[in-house]
Amino acid sequence: MQVGRGSPAVMVRMTVEMKAWFKHKAIDNRRTLNAEILFRLEESRKAEEAKHDKQA
Asked: How many domains in the chain?
């Protein structure tokens, strides 16, 4: 997955607590906040697709 400044931007509202949690996870994983959120969304998408494929 190649994401950069030319990729579409999306504004997402979240609680202060959730943003802080993501920030700490990003630091733990040596990622930017954006990269951490994208990584977790991609993992969630893969898991959902695998579940769907298993049911098919």
From this structure: 1
Domain range for 49 is 17-55
Q: Which of 47, 46, 41 is nearest to 3 (CA)?
A: 41
Residue 10 lies in a domain: no
Name which of 31, 29, 37 is nearest 11 in CA terms. Answer: 37
DSSP, collapsed to helix, strand or coil, labels residue 10 as coil
pLDDT in tens, 16-46: 999 999 999 999 999 999 999 999 999 999 9
In one-letter notation, the amino acid at residue 43 is E
Its pTM surpasses 0.90: no
